[in-house]
Design goal:
The protein has a single domain, classed as Beta Barrel (Thrombin, subunit H), CATH 2.40.10. 13% of the residues lie in helices and 38% in strands. The protein has 4 helices and 8 strands. Strands 1, 2, 3, 4, 5, 6, 7 and 8 form an 8-stranded antiparallel β-sheet that branches. The longest helix is centred in the last third of the chain and has 6 residues.
Amino acid sequence: MTEIVTPNLNGLAKSVVKAEAFRKFDDGSITASAFFSGFFWLNNSRLFIVTNWHNVTGLNSIDGSRLGSFTPSHVSVLFYGHKTNGPAAVHPKIERHRVVVPLYNEEHEPQWIGHSSSPTVDVVAIPFPQFETSAWHIVAMNRW
């Protein structure tokens, strides 16, 4: 008999994200990917994914050399949360969810916020889509 186990996660564990950076071309084809981790952070009612600068640029933060064979254009984020509305909100159940977040806008400008000393300080904050923030109860590292 198969047993279904619901994870019992504390707030800190629920704030961690597993992510995959990948390159998506205009024709929809995807090449190469790399996995990384990060965490959710809430600032002025805006949710961010905090991770390393080298994860979103594909570059070494010390010497600027390429770390792999591609420059990421998107990240696929896996996180834990529960629905904030509808029947699932009445009896919330923690579930894993996946959201794809573009790293650049249509003008090819970065959508992440880097440290003022980037790339020396190897950290960025990636804005998490507002529509996802309102649909799911997501735990931020600084709010658990």
